[in-house]
Amino acid sequence: MSNINESLQELMDLDGAMGACIVDYMSGMVLGTIGGGVDLELAAAGNSQVVKAKVATMKSLDIKGEIEDMLITLESQLHIIRPTANHEDLFIYLVLDKSKANLALARRKVQSIESKLEI
Fold first, then answer.
1. Helix crossing, 103-116 with 4-12: angle to 10°?
2. Residue-range domains of the chain with CATH
């Protein structure tokens, strides 16, 4: 079990990690941040809308199951958004330098963090 600060610090141990935060997507409020790479507060608010839209679309399409993660690929960055299964309305957001990161390892690490996160 990990608290927010421990979880965020673990994410920053990944090769290429630039910044991370844990967000309440219903309000867009950030519960904790670390690092940078982008304005994490602004990114949290914007990505809250992304998560809400995907949840609504899945509901409209009657798609069963939960979102595991979402990947946004930019020219020089990777952005991973992972809704938390144990904490409704929260997601983990990780920004990676694309040239230094290993996407598979990063996704596994975010999954691991999400499974042991205690709020």
1. 170
2. 4-116 (3.30.450.30)
Beta-carbon neighbour count of residue 31 at 10 Å?
14
pLDDT tens across 20-75, in order?
999 999 999 999 999 988 999 999 999 999 999 999 999 999 999 999 999 999 99
- pLDDT tens, residue by residue, 92-103: 999 999 999 999
Please enumerate in sequence order all residues whose Cβ is within 8 A of that of 62, keeping only pairs 6 or more positions apart, or say none.
none
